[in-house]
Fold these 2 entries.
Entry 1:
Amino acid sequence: MRITALAGGIGGARFLTGVRVARPDAEITVIGNTGDDITLHGLRICPDLDTVMYTLGGGISEERGWGREDESFVVSGELAAYGVGPSWFGLGDRDLATHLVRTQMIDAGYKLSDVVTALCDRWRPGVRLLPMSDDRVETHVIINDDQGRRAVHFQEWWLKLRASVPAEAILSVGAAESTPAPGVLDAIAAADVVLIGPSNPVVSIGTILSVPGIADALRVTLAPVIGISPIIGGAAVRGMADACLKAIGVETTARAVGAHYGGRHRDGETASAPERKGTSGGAERELGHGLLDGWLVDVVDADVAADPDAIPGATVKAVPLLMTDLEATVAIVEAALELAGV
Ligand code: GDP
Ligand code: CA
């Protein structure tokens, strides 16, 4: 069986541990978010891809959810002693080796997807990890604070400002000119099932969907597309996804996020792709992106599953969605595969 999953960082990676255990014989392809990527100290850093790679490769810090276990921060301390920041981005010594290898390879002319393959040769994550694009696509946030109206890198808004300043807009810079990385569209077209993991709907999944061609591939694939809600009982389980959803005018509820992704209307009612273009178009606001055959919500959101009109075109099912441990996570994956009928 071929499973293709869209994933961001911590939420996506945790979900993927369940996918791997639920279907150990499956060929699993992960399309990862690179919108969080940033260059610091001359090093290219890909936080979400690394979180997936370290988590599935057994090198993640379980406590933090990002970066390496048994980590030290000697280099960061030395940089701080020189007054060289930023201090808000954690860069451990072990982790730095990954960024050094990646930067060296990129400077030598390799594509990001080649770099990911090389890094995964060490970590053996048990999945084929693909960046959404080899092109540089970065999430920037428009804010208006005491320093005036300006755009900051997503990481500055998220880590330094802890999303405390409202985002006027969230932009996927470079997305319009980007193309999907090799293998991405094929992985969606040739899948037996596509899973949209419980990742941030705006700055993880939304960013992946901002790469031209990916959302269209999801709309036309013969594979069932099943989404797992990252929102439970009106709140992001961890993190500040509500601040991102607010910026795009979507309520922080499982119903609203499901409606934002939108049902696929396989019976032929699907609005044509051009009508759906743009992030604030009327058709999209009413029908969503037209991506989902199925949407899993938590049992506390059972009212969404009970309402046949909640997400027109998609079947909604309520199951426990807290990824408290591996067993609970595997059960979520099983529920998603059952909903997909595979
Ligand atoms: P990030 O890139 O590290 O922020 O990670 P992701 O974008 O992959 O996932 C972050 C999202 O995971 C958060 O917005 C949460 O809503 C969601 N999340 C975290 N833990 C859980 C959980 O146990 N269950 C569900 N359903 N969602 C979760
Ligand atoms: Ca992320």
Entry 2:
Amino acid sequence: MSAVKQDQIKSTVSDLAYFGGEAAFDEPLHVGRPNIGNRQVFEGRLADILDRHWLTNGGRYVTDFEKRIAEIAGVEHCVAMCNATVALEIAIRALGLTGEVIVPSFTFIATAHALKWQGITPVFCDIDRSTYNVDPTLVEQLITPRTTGLLPVHVFGRGCDVEALQEIATRRGLKLLFDSAHAFGCSYGDGMIGGFGDAEVFSFHATKFINSMEGGAVVTNDTQLAARMRLMKNFGFSNYDQTDYIGTNGKLNEVSAAFGLTNLESMQDFIDINFRNYQQYRAELANIDGLSLISYDTENKCNYQYIILEVDEEKTRVTRDQLVELLHAEKVLARRYFYPGCHSMEPYRSDDPNAGSRLPVTEDVAGRVVALPTGTAVGPEQISAICEVVRFIVSNGSEVNERFSANK
Ligand code: T4K
């Protein structure tokens, strides 16, 4: 764990590392430092994989991993894949999506790329200010004769308005696929995220609170869809020397699955640590004018894997981007998830240079958010030090801003 430098109390703006002071930490603190479960258990499984000479293509650990994910998500089928981006691509193809699909711009670029990679146009929909999720009241006006589906994202693990989206999808004859990369272990209403729409996609990338190094999965209650995806992730093979569809190689390997399984056994510990961190950030960043942490409602289960701060520059004087640069200098590698929004990245920016005018909430939120380090790699001492630096920066906002501008 990165040590806090005890003598690094900031008393003047010149003490900030950006302006020549010493950094608050000796090693970088990351957003997305992987959680690692019981090493001995994983090493035992690794030895077993090597002993049995079964590394991929339908091995025992992938099967067990799929079974556990399906149980936790409360769904009938889980098809594990090598990452969530490929899982999205395969689900999109298996659902027969073509033409246009409605998707948020406030998401990781993989959501949009998974469509575009297959020649489908992502049509960006603005988000609800309070949840950062697609605003269902705006979806309908984006539907055209070319629209075949909706691909909403449960951003930061907070559930979308599933009922409203399902109602639109059913009434308009559209497929509904959720990008649930952030939402494994989260619930919405009476159900776990995973069981909504036609299918949902989880990510088990290293930076996710449950990781299999790289990995993803599609979960669904549709038996035929699951069977189709199972073939598609294995080149379309239905038998030796026989393919039924065009397929690709989307398989998860045994080592990743064994690592994922091991981490799943520590899932509740990881959630407890994330929750403890979230509460501490809430307490220590409370009452700072211009800063607010996004909240997770207590009615739903949550994995608390993202600590997202919103910066109101009018009040803090220091800008969001300045804050991020100042924190980086202190070795706190805060991230601007999700800036600038997919619509402002290529190729989408060139496809539709004016998309931003239809996405005012996305642009506003993307300009305010900062993700802070959490997970098992940060403890109470580190969080206190991060919060102290943030508080110091904001309480000296005007001076910091002036010095910052003069430095440029
Ligand atoms: N849909 C959504 C909504 C998503 O957020 C994502 C992925 C996907 C789909 C696609 O899922 P996958 O195909 O990846 O399964 C990171 C992750 O790579 C990406 O998985 C994640 N979302 C996204 C939100 O964050 P980057 O480009 O910001 O990652 P990077 O390399 O900058 O790493 C983040 C921080 O973590 C760095 O400070 C370094 C640290 N780190 C990273 C790794 C991999 C470590 O300390 N150790 C590590 O092993 O995208």
